[in-house]
Amino acid sequence: MNWKSILVHLDNSRRCDARTRLAFDIASRFDAHVIGLYLVCQDLLHHVFDPSDRLQHEAYAEQRRAALEKARDTFEHAARLAGVSAEWRAPGSPVFDAATLHGRHADVIVLGQDDPDDPAAFVALHFVEDVVISVGRPVLIVPRAGDIPTFGENVLIGWDDSREAARAVFDALPILRRARFIEVATVERHRYEEAPAGIEISAYLDRQGVRASFSSTPRIRGENTGMTLVDKASSAHADLLVAGAYAHSRGLERVLGGVTRALLEMSPLPVLLSH
Description:
Number of strands: 10
Strand order of the largest sheet: 3-2-1-4-5-10-9-6-7-8
Shape: globular
């Protein structure tokens, strides 16, 4: 099994190019097709316009058209340079509906991490997490800053014996089969609590032709499990973190903080999430 269809979210943000480059890099490995899905915040400024000011509305519409055409030209030019099969889509439907509809016909979806310092990166409230939990496909989150010199060579798998973690490992197999180093990491949540056994998942991977080491890491005091995994990935010089998303209630994670939220908001390296 390989990824043959990759969907990448396009917009006018400063990290759009980084997402596009990564999508094309992955596509070149698997001889895959890339779908560039242009989705931006709809009617972000309409509420501040005078409804009777036609010229103001026309200027705003022209600005959006120009931004769309620039994004399209940039994407198609990059596709030609990469020598990758690609197509552009810019649906007019609500952004979440469009993302889930088109995403369900792709093998993996490439999204950007939320960036509060870049207004152009805002699509909709909870856009990324809503897509992760609803689309039924693995979602690759590209960090809001930093270079991505390598991808999928040194992989850390966050394992907790959950359904979501098992799904993530299966979804990541195309990358894992090509990785040079893989570590299955579990996190001990309390001193008196045993960490989930990662030996069985390591054995499963071995039967898939994937060699992985196994480690158990105590949770760092003052950090949740998500941040402990991020720290572990950084210390291992991983260039991809694979994890299940929302093994617990999303509402509870929003209130108390949780693994998925930490990975979505804080990870400095790409994260592959499955729900």
